[in-house]
Amino acid sequence: MACAAVMATLAAQTVSAPAVSDRARKLHQSSFVFDGHVHAIDREFYHGGDVGVRKPDGQFDLVRAREGGVGALFFSIFVTEDYYPARFETKQAIRMLDCAVEQIARNSKTVELARSAADIDRIRSLGKMAAVLDVEGSFDLDGDPAVIRRMHALGVRSVQLSAHNWTSNYADSCCSQPKWHGLNDRGREVIREMNRLGMLINVSHASDEALSQAIDISTVPVVATHHGLRAINDIPRNMPDALLRKLAAKGGVIGFQLGSEFHSRKAFDWRTSHAGKPFWDTSAILERGTKLSIYEIDKLVAPQFPMLPPDIPQDVHIGIDEWVAVVDRTIQLVGEDHVALGSDFDGGPPLPRGMRDVRDLPMITDAMLRRGYSEDRIRKFLGGNLLRVFREITAQSR
Known about the structure:
CATH architecture: Alpha-Beta Barrel
CATH superfamily: Metal-dependent hydrolases
Radius of gyration: 19 Å
Number of helices: 17
Shape: globular
Structural class: alpha/beta
Oligomer: single chain
Number of strands: 9
């Protein structure tokens, strides 16, 4: 990782907490905060350690999450594209699931695994955080219902339909060449099996066609856990208005990622120009092919975790009010029952100006109050909407 990025992150840890109104802080602490996308255990898998110990860098650990008022979160099981060419992705998913379960067990006084909304209710009543296992990059499923069933048995309750930024063997990605014009027969079978099991279908990273077809096929709402709006920033990773309306019409929820480059063309262009490629470009991995063992791949990718944001200038970062304006546009379009938080902490998002890490989630509540939102609307955004959909979907389990 770049020295400048490390220094910037370390400096952020010493910055004083941003000013937040007393009303916002009280409202935030009394609300149920449910974050739909967190890279919670990448660091621990690659470098060891304990997610329950305060870290000197990065954006997330359980100590800071509690300070930020988090009540539940999706633990992202992130299998990078590096494992795909040699077909190590299923093994890597299992290894990371094992790490996640071990980390949750190690911190049982703070966090528990949740398999249903009833579990979340119980865990909340104990004053703990609830962890929902979510697979990001379902290339590892390979469209095989047997693998889905085994992951469900291990506690997985959410699967991202698309294989991160690669088209999988059953679903097209937003950020690679289409192969299936959305979903093939395997993809449709995957959705039906996930419906039967009571698993959340996560359409973040899916192509427009795959996303649309998933909504059509699923018998329950689908969720885009960490997203942006194409009307704000016209990149394929973001959702167009027509699909947003379609997702909401079936009861679905869109979670908003906290990165500046999702919600600002200026920030995206700055990142692309300095990196020489969009953040989803994986061509170098494809060129490397199958030359490495899984343990060599571990060593190769370990330095990128936790994924630190690029050291972009302050005037390129969006402000928290600009970020809330994106949420507000969505509410104006589809209503307040279809928006949620999907931070992507430790997944590399350049956070809004002044936000250090998960501790500073109350900044969102404060900005929403400034915008004139009711407390009920804010509570829906912070966690109520995502919990409602999670409750409906897990209740389908048979």
